[in-house]
């Protein structure tokens, strides 16, 4: 499995270090967009500045993307191998108002919008808010309605 993490770093021309591999592995294992605080809690022996520097490096090499889900805390998610974080690569995110987790919904691309003349789009923030499947089950909410 370590090869998966090495491959992802290699694709983005990022030198693999033990800390970078640890942070990438942790992000991928969490299977959702994570905040800096989430990583600090999960990696309690890792210095906060090391996590921040690693996230900044990952962002600059398009290994991860940032998600502003409206919670007041930027979240980060690992990109697909073919993603270059262009407008065309952007997808929907889902923010659960119960557990406060944010998920990438890669199967739903962000819609294209025709802007007035002179305007240039550089990004899209497409976030749906509601209750995630896990919380719906635990709260007994029927999501088929």
UniProtKB/TrEMBL annotation:
Sites where the protein binds Zn(2+): 96, 99, 132, 135
The keyword Nuclease appears for this protein: no
Top-level taxonomic group: Bacteria
UniProt remark on cofactor binding: Binds 1 zinc ion per subunit.
GO biological process annotation, one example: negative regulation of DNA-templated transcription
Keywords: Metal-binding, Zinc
Protein name: Transcriptional repressor
């Amino acid at each position: 499995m370590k090869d998966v993490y090495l491959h992802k770093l290699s694709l983005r021309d990022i030198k693999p270090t033990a800390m970078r591999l640890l942070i990438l592995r942790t992000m991928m294992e969490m299977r959702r967009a994570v905040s800096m605080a989430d990583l600090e809690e999960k990696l309690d022996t890792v210095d906060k500045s090391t996590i921040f520097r690693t996230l900044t490096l990952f962002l600059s090499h398009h290994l991860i993307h940032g998600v502003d889900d409206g919670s007041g805390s930027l979240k980060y998610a690992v990109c697909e191998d073919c993603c270059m974080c262009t407008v065309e690569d952007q997808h929907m995110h889902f923010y659960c108002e119960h557990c406060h987790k944010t998920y990438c919904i890669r199967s739903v691309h962000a819609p294209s919008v025709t802007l007035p003349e002179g305007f240039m789009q550089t990004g899209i923030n497409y976030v749906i808010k509601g209750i995630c499947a896990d919380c719906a089950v635990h709260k007994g909410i029927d999501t088929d309605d």
